[in-house]
Design brief:
With about 900 residues, this protein is an alpha+beta fold. Among the domains are: about 210 residues, Metalloenzyme, LuxS/M16 peptidase-like (Cytochrome Bc1 Complex, Chain A, domain 1, 2-Layer Sandwich), CATH 3.30.830; about 210 residues, 2-Layer Sandwich (Cytochrome Bc1 Complex, Chain A, domain 1), CATH 3.30.830; about 200 residues, Cytochrome Bc1 Complex, Chain A, domain 1, CATH 3.30.830. It is about 40% helix and about 20% strand. It contains 32 helices and 23 strands. The strands form 4 sheets. It has a 6-stranded mixed β-sheet, with helices on both faces. A hairpin with a 4-residue loop joins strand 4 and strand 5. Helix 17 packs across helix 23. The longest helix has 20 residues. The two termini are about 30 Å apart. The N terminus is likely disordered.
């Protein structure tokens, strides 16, 4: 549960570095970008606890975000990783609720429930339906004020094992070890940032129960915490609840803020390591200004100019023009004492990484010497503004409004610290950005190359802590109605209005995803959809990227198993010019042969990355084993195809795919957001009403396959791997099966929640794994049901036995219990509002309805249908879904030690496979 905020995607680090919230139009930002305030009220309780409240009534949910001003920087050498270990312990029960923290919250419909640790803070957050708020506040206050009596050696040992498996899991991924190396080599010995957040195995082993108690007493007092409550609640109601639940918790010791210590490097440090990676990659790291500083805002805009987006300098030169790199990137990692500016480049196979490194350094030096252009700065400025606006659709989660307010309050000491950052962003000029670059990037840096290896009570009230508060009943969901219209060419338009923010999302949904790839051309849909924005009859790929950046819009295209889609996200006041680009991409792609040859190596590099990542590799291997290689669904679940098939694809194949699949006869236009049909239909008619396609064809039908007649075990040997990826699966009925809800409920109880049977067994009871679960994958027709986990290598066979035992008991002597069904129903019904809060989530629900041919009111009827489901129906659904004697097993890990034990199981043939 470490925060994954290291790479900038869709403005993520912009949200983190321009951290709090209310953005208003500026002299530099285009006036037609209407960015709303986030109004809030701040209260400080008598015990020093800070409460910040924001009211947002659009959806009946409330986000609670609790931040403690303590992270890995507050550790000591020899006790690293302790902040994160303690975060895990906070989920293991308190004195008055001595059980898994996830269990009651899943039972009341919580969504986005998690905790994260970084160098500067630890936070715990969840969204709950409004009637469930008391349950969440009771639990949060109980672990803040009543934790130590529930922590014992058994829990410490359990979570120590879980965290160590999390560390193994991360290091078992391509390039995963660099996050331990960068702190070590970029900061001086003894610096609070000179060790990784997750710590070392030796330090985790050394943690004692006394350490736990001391950490809690030192850092988890009320005065070191900030609570943000955002959503369907007013400030005075929130204040009264927080005073009741938290008012009697001791303030804790008086703590001093750490002094700023950026520790810029004065020399160039070069480190080269070998790892099990498919391509060489180099990281460049500079230690720079602290978070919430003018210089850091400037450096974020410089990162965008340098390597973010197709029009950035390094992407244009190394990826697009020279095709010597498969990807580049740059981002700012904001921290309280001093941040880091990072750039990376991944070499295309056969390219000299040292030459690419020099190209990166030359580009950085040029940017320092000249500064960004006005166009580059304005593009970044617009991206930061619009990225924040998109994050503000949600009250909780990463980048949501409660997250932004908490970040400003804890790190800057003021929820209103956004005002300074906003003014710095408004006032930034190419010259001021250049000065920040000279100050911070003109000094030393780290170059880390990864090469492929060869094999107190004052205001509180009396709270009943003998039992959790009971939440109210879930109400039926009321998603906006699906308004339908048709353009003159027959293309159906489906609109869901949601008007509180000036944003619109448009999705073209076309039948025929990568399941429709012809035999021998697997990966065609993925390559073809990746080509749509690579040039039209009137715009080059770089023209498209530049125009979208200037509008603050984004267009993405891709393929899933059954669908090809093209998505537009735009500000509603700029929708018309954004639709012009969207139309051009859909109707006039040219699929330049040169661009195909640029994209092909990147897809091949992506396949190599998938094969190097054990879990993705297993997802590549399993479907052909379940369906057979001749079935449309018998292709890698990643959609990327095979090396030989991607190499065989020619431009004519791409054009043919587009003409057959991306056509009005096969498609629907889904629109969600700030627009009505009276305005929308003419806009779409003008751009798509005369669209015709004479070559459109329906995708192939997916025939029903019989279950395997027995179990089969397939092994992929990965010598030296610290973990084994386990996938066990078989086919399940389509989502239109009359028992689908019962099967989904059975899956959720078995492996779809944190507190489900298989996760509690392998993670919590035995701590062999960081996590285990089960899933029914999405498909229009017959779908895979799989059980999955990553387990420490020496527990491979034992974990398989546990999976098999749990599945047999689910359909036999230990069927779904009444309390499990109640937990599933409450989780599913109460969490529905939280799963449909943002436009993207709403569009996702509507896309599922359209793509799976479900009723328009499917989600609005779901609460009543789930509440009416009986225990007998769910048990029958489990028997219909789960077939333990038909499992196909895929294992990826160090298999040499397990072959004999696997054969002795007697479950079926044991076959070795390669990653191909």
């Amino acid at each position: 549960m470490i925060a994954k905020t290291l790479i900038r995607l869709a403005g993520l680090t912009a949200v983190l570095s321009v951290s709090a919230c209310s953005l208003l139009p500026s002299a530099n930002a285009p006036a037609e970008l209407p960015l709303p305030d986030i109004d809030y009220q701040t209260f400080v309780l008598d015990n020093g606890l800070t409460l910040i409240v924001h009211e947002d009534r659009k959806t009946p949910i409330v986000a609670v975000n609790v931040w403690y001003h303590v992270g890995s920087k507050n550790e000591q050498a020899g006790r690293t990783g302790f902040a994160h270990l303690f975060e895990h312990l906070m989920f293991n029960g308190s004195e008055n609720y001595n059980d898994e923290f996830f269990r009651p919250l899943e039972n009341v419909g919580a969504t986005g429930l998690n905790g994260t640790t970084n160098a500067d803070r630890t936070n715990y957050f969840a969204n709950v339906p409004t009637p469930s708020l008391d349950t969440l506040l009771w639990l949060e206050s109980d672990r803040m004020g009543h934790l130590l009596g529930a922590i014992d050696q058994a829990k410490l040992d359990e979570q120590r094992g879980v965290v160590q498996n999390e560390k193994r899991q991360r290091e078992n991924q391509p390039y995963g070890k660099i996050w331990d190396l960068i702190p070590q080599y970029s900061y001086p010995e003894g610096h609070p940032y000179s060790w990784s957040v997750i710590g070392s195995m030796q330090d985790l082993d050394a943690a004692t129960l006394d350490d736990v108690k001391h950490w809690f007493k030192t850092w988890y007092g009320a005065a070191n915490a900030v609570i943000v409550i955002a959503g369907d609640i007013d400030a005075q109601t929130a204040k009264a609840k927080v005073e009741a639940y938290f008012g009697d918790i001791p303030a804790g010791p008086r703590l001093q803020r750490a002094e700023s210590w950026p520790a810029p490097m004065t020399d160039t440090r070069e480190v080269t390591v070998q790892d099990d990676v498919p391509q060489a990659r180099s990281y460049f790291v500079w230690n720079v200004a602290p978070n919430f500083s003018r210089d850091l805002i400037h450096l974020q805009t410089a990162a965008d100019a340098l390597a973010n987006g197709k029009t950035s300098r390094l992407y244009r030169s190394l990826v697009h023009e020279q095709q010597r790199a498969t990807d580049v990137g740059a981002f700012v990692l904001p921290r309280e004492l001093g941040s880091q500016f990072m750039v990376w480049v991944t070499a295309r196979p056969g390219e000299d990484i040292a030459e690419l490194e020099q190209h990166v350094i030359d580009a950085v030096d040029t940017l320092i010497a000249q500064g960004p252009s006005s166009e580059e700065l304005e593009r970044s400025r617009t991206g930061l503004y619009v990225g924040m606006l998109r994050g503000m659709q949600q009250v909780g989660g990463f980048g949501g409004k409660s997250d932004l307010l908490a970040s400003a309050a804890v790190i800057a000491g003021d929820p209103g610290a956004w005002k300074d950052e906003l003014s710095w962003l408004r006032e930034a000029t190419p010259h001021s950005v250049q000065n920040s670059l000279k100050t911070w990037l003109g000094q030393g840096h780290l170059r880390l190359r990864v090469e492929p290896s060869t094999p107190g009570r004052t205001s509180g009230q009396d709270v009943d802590r003998s039992r959790l508060p009971e939440p109210g009943q879930a109400k039926p969901l009321t998603l906006p109605p699906m308004q339908r219209a048709r353009l003159s060419n027959g293309l159906e338009v489906v609109l869901l209005e949601r008007r509180e923010l000036p944003l619109v999302e448009v999705r073209l949904l076309s039948r025929g995803g990568y399941a429709a790839d012809p035999k021998g051309m697997e990966g065609l849909a993925t390559l073809s959809m990746g080509m749509l924005d690579e040039g039209t009859t009137t715009r080059s790929a770089l023209d498209i990227a530049s125009e979208l950046d200037s509008l603050g819009a984004s267009i993405s295209s891709g393929a899933s198993l059954d669908l090809a889609s093209v998505s537009l996200s735009a500000v509603s006041t700029r929708l018309e010019p954004a639709l012009d680009i969207y139309r051009d991409i859909i109707r006039n792609p040219t699929f330049p042969a040169a661009e195909i040859e640029r994209l092909r190596p990147r897809i091949l590099a992506g396949i190599a990355q998938e094969k190097a990542s054990p879990f993705q590799a297993a997802l590549r291997i399993l479907p052909p084993l379940l369906y057979g290689e001749d079935h449309p669904y018998g292709v890698p679940m990643t959609g990327s195809g095979y090396v030989h098939s991607v190499e065989a694809i020619q431009r004519d194949d791409v054009v043919r795919f587009y003409q057959q699949r991306i056509a009005p006869q096969n498609s629907q236009l889904l629109v969600v957001g700030d627009i009505d049909m009276a305005r929308l239909q003419p806009l779409l008619e003008a751009r798509f009403g005369d669209w015709r396609s004479s070559q459109a064809s329906a995708p192939p039908n997916a025939t029903t396959q019989a279950l395997a007649s027995g179990q089969r075990i397939y092994l992929v040997d990965k010598p030296g791997a610290p973990q084994t990826v386990i996938l066990a699966g078989h086919l399940a009925p389509s989502p239109r099966d009359p028992d689908d809800l019962a099967m989904q409920a059975a899956n959720t109880a078995f492996g779809g929640m944190f507190t489900s049977r298989i996760n509690m067994n392998l993670r919590e009871d035995k701590h062999w794994s960081y996590g285990a679960g089960s899933a029914i994958f999405s498909a229009h027709d017959q779908r895979p049901f799989i059980v999955y986990s990553r387990v420490q290598g020496d527990k491979t066979v034992a974990a398989m036995r546990e999976v098999q035992r749990e599945l047999r008991e689910l359909t036999g002597k230990r069927p779904i219990r009444a309390e499990e069904l109640r937990a599933v129903v409450r989780n599913e019904t109460l969490s529905l509002p939280g799963r449909n809060e943002s436009l993207g989530q709403l569009a996702g629900s509507a896309s599922r309805i359209l793509s799976l041919d479900l009723p328009d009111d499917y989600y609005n009827q779901l609460v009543d249908q789930l509440n009416a489901m009986s225990l007998d129906e769910v048990r029958a659904g489990a028997r219909k879904l789960v077939h333990p004697d038909a499992l196909t097993w895929v294992l990826i890990g160090d298999m040499a030690a397990h072959r004999e034990a696997l054969e002795s199981l007697g479950w079926g043939p044991v076959t070795e496979l390669s990653l191909d």
